[in-house]
Amino acid sequence: MPWSGAETAPAACPTAAVLRPLSRTVVFNSPGMAVTPTDVMFYGILSEVDVKCETSGDALHASLDVIIAAERGPSTRGNSVDFTYFVAVLGPGDTILSKKSFGIRVGVDQNEKRGGVTDHFDELIPLRGIPAASLRIVAGFQQSPQIIEFYRHYSGH
Fold it and tell me: Which architecture characterizes domain 8-150 according to CATH?
């Protein structure tokens, strides 16, 4: 959908990728307490980020789809979980040009082990003379020190 009153053209999109170290997360039964697999209520998987673009003057209109799944853990309570993930735009030299966090709720049907959602949003990225193809869009889960410690000890989960 073009921006009102502006000429638009197909644009070379920045590459879009999930940061592998930040593609997984967990929600614990007792936040701030145990960090073992038996205390996990839900595992989160950020599996894909897709982007489509068009230019409008010196700005890029990016339409993003982020796919997030939840999997029940041993201590699951309830049928949904809230995750926080971020999307950042990186410029030349991996300079962070912008970063936004998003909250998302993922439902898991009562008799299912996994559920997933596609989060869609549009972003206007000022190019400031930088070619769109030289930018990168990256996504990952926001991680607490507790989650980092969990994956340091239990990386196979």
Answer: Sandwich (2.60)
